[in-house]
């Protein structure tokens, strides 16, 4: 996950809600926070992946995540009830489509 919240808090919230993540990007460690471009660059640095291998998924269209991610070369997706992606299962299917090279 890429959140301005502390990693420990994110872990507790995620576990309490049955969510599992591969990792938590520690933005506080980098002393940068979204929506500054440095936060998205920090995610690339932390993950040690090219931006083109990353996808940022946000539920907040007006926060600046989409613009920030795309500005550094990260693919971005917006999920909300009117986007066609409203559940974790639909998100999983959309991400699988991206991995296969198609548009969700």
Brief overview, please?
By secondary structure, the protein is mainly α. It has helices at residues 7-16, 27-30, 37-47, 65-71, 88-99; strands at residues 55-58, 75-78. Helices cover 42% and strands 8% of the residues.
**Strand fraction:** 5-15%
Alpha carbon gap, first and last residue: 21 Å
Number of E strands: 2
Secondary-structure content class: mainly alpha
Q: Roughly how many Å is the radius of gyration? A: 14 Å
Helix content: 40-55%
Q: How many individual helices?
A: 5
Q: Determine the mean pLDDT.
A: 85
Largest sheet: 2 strands, parallel
Q: List segments where confidence is low: pLDDT < 50 over at least 5 consecutive residues.
A: none
Biggest sheet: strands side by side, in what order? 1-2
Shape: globular
What is the N-to-C succession of helices and strands?
A: HHHEHEH
Can you describe this structure?
The protein has 104 residues and is mostly helical. It is 42% helix and 8% strand. The protein contains five helices and two strands, in the order αααβαβα. The chain has helices at 7-16, 27-30, 37-47, 65-71, 88-99, and strands at residues 55-58, 75-78. Strands 1-2 form a two-stranded parallel ribbon. Helix 4 links the parallel strand 1 (55-58) and strand 2. 14% of the residues are buried.
């Amino acid at each position: 996950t890429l959140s301005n919240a502390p990693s420990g808090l994110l872990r507790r919230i995620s576990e309490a809600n049955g969510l599992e993540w591969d990792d938590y990007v520690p933005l506080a460690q980098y002393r940068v926070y979204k929506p500054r471009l440095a936060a998205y660059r920090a995610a690339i640095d932390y993950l040690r992946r090219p931006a083109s291998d990353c996808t940022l998924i946000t539920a907040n269209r007006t926060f600046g995540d989409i613009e920030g991610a795309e500005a550094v070369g990260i693919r971005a997706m917006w999920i909300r009830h009117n986007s066609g992606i409203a559940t974790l299962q639909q998100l999983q299917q959309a991400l699988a489509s991206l991995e296969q090279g198609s548009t969700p």
